[in-house]
Amino acid sequence: MNIILADNQDITRAGLLYVFEQIGVENVVTATDKAALLDKLRDNPCSVVILDYTLFDFSGDSELLILGERFKNAFLVLFSEELSLDFVRRMVGTSLSVSVLLKESPMSEITDCLKQALAHKRYICQRMLEMMLVPANTLESKVPLTKTETEILRDIALGMTTKEIAEKRFSSFHTVNTHRKNIFRKIEVNNVHEATKYAIKSGLVDTADYYI
Q1: 6-26, pLDDT tens digit by residue?
Q2: Which candidate, 15, 125, 153, 211, has a CA 20 to 30 Å from the CA of 27?
């Protein structure tokens, strides 16, 4: 069985390749963007895909679900730093061929998840499973964005990179990146496309100003 490691972070790929080596898996190929992932899946449609969805330019979960429909024999492991609860519920509720693993998970969970994926068996890491089991009406209400976060979200929606925003605000890349992660967590989105939709829907960006 072929494994596609779809992640554009060198350290993550190196770490997972090491883990696969430890559990005796050798046939692992890598993809660092969506185009490469699609090419690998066309060549090996029955692959297990380890994907950091937040780092690839998917326009939303609907595109990911379409990918699952196109490659019905593939098995997907969502492996990211943070994923919104609504997104995870939609994904696991729509397909049995989806596992969820956070990058902060202990090594025992990472190893177990990968072994289960090789057998096309679902695995949900402990932290995400606990979040999913909490009744929706007991979850904390959304925390409103601060003035700084609102300004940064608008800049993100207008197409500015983290580096460009940092230069504009005379801040460090690290500071703006931290704000970005907090924004995505608060508004429960996973990538720039979803954040942009939120900004437009909330009136932070006029559709006349928005362009790609």
Answers
A1: 999 999 999 999 999 999 998
A2: 125
